[in-house]
Amino acid sequence: MSTLQQTILNNKNNNLSVFFTAGFPKMESTKEILAILNTSNVDFIEIGIPFSDPLADGPVIQHSSTIALNNGMTLELLFAQLKEVKDKITKPYLLMGYLNSLLACGIETFYRKCSEGGVHHIIIPDLPVNEYLEEHKSIADKFDVSPVFLITPSTSEARIKEIDQISKAFIYLVSGNTTTGNDSSIQTEAIKKIQSLNLKNPLIIGFGIKNKADYSAACKLGNGAIIGSAFINMISGSSDLQKDILSFIGQIKD
User: Fold this and answer.
1) What are the residue ranges spanned by the domains of the chain?
2) Is 46 tagged catalytic?
3) Catalytic pick from 32, 57, 108, 240?
4) Which of the residues 46, 157, 162, 214 is marked catalytic?
5) Residues paired with residue 46 on neighbouring β-strands, in sequence order
6) E strands, 78-223, where?
7) What is the largest CA-CA distance in the chain?
8) Residue-wise DSSP of 42-82
9) What is the pTM of this model?
10) 183-235 pLDDT, tens per residue?
11) Topology annotation, domain 12-149+209-252
């Protein structure tokens, strides 16, 4: 059992994670935001790799990626930043990005640098399960890095069970058929059916989770939630990240 999975299971149905884009709003913001979140009441942290065409993401996260790229943020710089601060961060953190960034880095180099930066789990929405198993798994295992796969309320039972078997942290359950940051409602009945499958991995719900009410609703259906666009909106207008981040987390999770 990974440290991240153990953290989630210890917290039962009360896990909160936030997503932010590396290099946003400023190049060095990654280290500052990580340090603040490490002192907050979040349970784990999701760091986005800036990408020019993030298909699963809505306009808020797309805009943050554009700014981060314009700031000069690259995957190489992100790995360097994480390597610099990893010994100071006690909460689990993982990377979310797209397959093109991984392949441009090189499969073995990517997983090696993840390990060197304290990253043991990745979310790559456009990495097919079979491609991971055939081309990535042996290398990822060598560096103690494992994927978190996304499912939706319409994912087949067979695919969900396959993902459950190869996952080592949690399964990312998309709240509905949507992109990040949209106002679609959580598909409650479909999610209850997924919960009835008695999966070995916890379910963390994301996409469209923006406030305490959404978070509370997600915690009744799964093991917690990830908030992305609302968090990025907040930090984009912040003049005091320390104060505003802790306040934001406090409003979501007492």
Assistant:
1) 12-149+209-252
2) yes
3) 57
4) 46
5) 19, 94
6) 93-96, 121-123, 146-147, 150-151, 171-174, 203-206
7) 48
8) -SEEEEEPP-S--TT--HHHHHHHHHHHHTT--HHHHHHHH
9) 0.94
10) 556 788 888 999 899 999 999 999 989 999 999 999 999 999 999 999 999 99
11) TIM Barrel (3.20.20)
